[in-house]
Amino acid sequence: MATVITMPRLSDTMTEGVVATWLKKVGDTIKTGEILAEIETDKATMEFESFYDGVLLHIGIQEGESAPVDSLLAIVGKAGEDISALLSGGAPKEEAAPVTEVKAEAPAATTTKAEIPAGVKVVTMPRLSDTMTTGTVATWLKKVGDTVKEGDILAEIETDKATMEFESFNAGTLLYIGVEEGGTAPVDTILAILGPAGTDVSAIATNYSVGGNAEAPKAEEVKSSTQTETTSNTQLPASNSNDRIFASPLAKKIASDKGINLSQVKGSGENGRITKSDVENFTPSTASAPAQTVVEAKETPAAAKVFVPNGEKFTEEIKNSQMRKIIAKRLAESLFTAPHYNLVIEVAMDEAMKSRVVINTVPDTKVSFNDMVIKASAMALKKHPKINSQWREESILINHHVNIGVAVAVEDGLVVPVLNFTDQMSLSQIGAGVRDLAGRAKSKKLLPTEMEGSTFTISNLGMFGITEFNSIINQPNSAILSVGAIVEKPVVKDGQIVVGNTMMLSLACDHRTIDGATGAQFLQTLKQFIENPVTMLA
């Protein structure tokens, strides 16, 4: 489905933008993270990245032209796709996800009880994903008294999905920090204040409000989190900031794709920040010694063990990350609002094992059993669309596109990156896509848009030796498939006991949308595809 991209709001005062340069032309293939255009705001000329993969089908604003915020900027979709309805104004409003995110990063215009002096800017906690309600400051990259320029990274903010860099849209001196490192605050609460050096902002910090409501309780909450963080910092090394690598998100993505160690790249940007061109022009050299030193410095604290004398009770309190809080909230909501039931089926894996060996003999091809389950699930969902549904109070929404979310365990919890249009992908494409998404998930480099829009979810614990388990539905999906380990055991074939390989699949269903017979029919179709892999190639 084609996606409409509108003119983003790249600063808090921006009402219109000028396209300075298009870096892509109609017909070009675009990948997530690539720069579409350079857009001139009322403050600076900034690069605008694509949040989608596809082909650039239409350019709505030519180079040198200006247009109001939210005007049609471009359309991205599949080659040859009919976009006449979108050009005539039929674009679904919710498809402009990247615009929502960009607008959220800019401090919103607010009403305050305290009068804000000229030149002073209040920066609020941004909404960096569509589901974000609170944010945690993972790291401040500036301190009170520092000079801040437009485009400088102020802080790293942990959302419910990832840790993301937050850039300043204003220049000035950092006069006040409202949420200390480790502190959590709701979206739109005061994060920082910028302005001329020496400006008294104590009244703003105390009385700042959104929409005219006093924020005094939030100030107390921030103070509490500050005290907690100060206490914990006395137990940790104070030099971690020296190991920080400053690089733009696009530079990080290119470095990851090329396997380049950013600690070896010299940045040409402000304060040594690594840019896209620095990575593209980097030539590897024998610079492994410094990188090794950094790794060892980071690993030393993790290796330290707490001494507990024999016979003494000891407990350790670990502060919940924002991701862990959101996981707890959503899974509880899912379990207590959706009536779950589970269906279990045993699948013979002998033919799948033989087919995988043959498939992987093809050069540059690496297919896992999980990839085969994903492919089979996508094809089965096309035959049983009721499984690919969502519950709404007044109706049931049937999705005729298949976007499979793949649960990936990360250090702080669990994320679910999404393979869009999975049914249209080959086994090798699925394998490559899963490896890419899982790798970037573990290094916290996924974009929020890459974790949105799933219609069905798969969770696999087979690699840990778990033979059977039940998962909690990843709402708004109506079902989640739990995949166990392949087990070699005696089975009956043609009346004879022989050694075979089997795998248990468990389907958790929302009984509001999926009846037992519907779920059972889906599992039967899924079983047929997996047990006869050649049918997935038809």
Report on the architecture of this protein.
This protein is of the alpha+beta class and 538 residues long. The protein folds into four domains: 3-104, Beta Barrel (OB fold (Dihydrolipoamide Acetyltransferase, E2P)); 114-233, RNA polymerase II/Efflux pump adaptor protein, barrel-sandwich hybrid domain (OB fold (Dihydrolipoamide Acetyltransferase, E2P), Beta Barrel); 245-303, E3-binding domain (Dihydrolipoamide Transferase); 323-537, 2-Layer Sandwich (Chloramphenicol Acetyltransferase). Helices cover 27% and strands 26% of the residues. It has twelve helices and 26 strands. It has helices at 84-90, 97-105, 202-207, 216-233, 249-258, 276-280, 288-303, 322-337, 350-359, 369-383, 427-442, 516-531; strands spanning 3-6, 16-22, 29-30, 35-40, 45-49, 54-59, 66-68, 72-77, 121-124, 134-140, 147-148, 153-158, 163-167, 172-177, 184-186, 190-195, 340-348, 389-391, 396-398, 404-406, 408-410, 413-415, 418-419, 456-460, 479-493, 496-510. Strands 17-26-25-24-20-23 form a six-stranded mixed β-sheet. It has a four-stranded antiparallel β-sheet with strand order 1-8-6-3. β21 (408-410) and β22 (413-415) form a beta hairpin. α10 packs across α12 (516-531). It is globular and about 90 Å long. Residues 91-113, 211-242 and 286-303 have low confidence and may be disordered. Its cofactor is (R)-lipoate. Belongs to the 2-oxoacid dehydrogenase family. It comes from Flavobacterium bernardetii. Keywords: Acyltransferase, Lipoyl, Transferase. Its EC number is 2.3.1.-.
